[in-house]
Amino acid sequence: MKKLLIINASARSERSISRFMTKVFVDVWSQNHPDDQIVYREVGQGNIPHVSEPWIAAAFKPAELRDSTDLGALKISDELVAELKDADIIVVGTPMYNWSVPSSLKAYIDQVLRVNETVLISNADIKNPYKGLLNDKEVYLLMVRGNMGYDVGDFYEHMDFQTNYLKTVFGIMGIDKVKHIAMNGAGMGEDAMLIARKMVNQLLEIPTDASVLVR
Questions:
Q1: Which domains does the chain have, with CATH numbers?
Q2: Which residue among 46, 175, 185, 189 is least crowded, i.e. fewest CB within 10 A of its CB?
């Protein structure tokens, strides 16, 4: 049995296509892996704090030297890191905001990308100082953009600060098994939902006609 961590980063609720994509992902996955456990982490509406000066001081202090103030500063981060470590598969549903990820998702990443927790840093190799500690996991990125042209070779490819950023972040934490899809020019409606459903099925290598089973 595997544990899936579903991260929703959209500020929207009912009208969010990225949330619809994570829902379809869970539906399809659960049909094929009914015993797996699903855990949700709300990021887009979850009020995850940005890192602060006390947080930075505590995070870079040896664990055995942290006092109650340090532990308080890292409380939420510790919970998020433990949740991430406990997952086998991580699914991120996120829109593109201003050519990158939502600030709420960036805040989440800052909370979990921690030295000695999810990554080690060595000065021995300046060109490759990072050693990720989460290399037993897989990541699926379900991304949504409001405009067209962000795919490889398209006219806005150079303005996609979403895909490579997320792949780099998870790669630094040791996860090199990253699959992704991106729905460009997304708007709500039956067509968008059908396209999203088809893309998720293809990502999971499910025959397209099986999408009728997912409601």
A1: 3-213 (3.40.50.360)
A2: 189
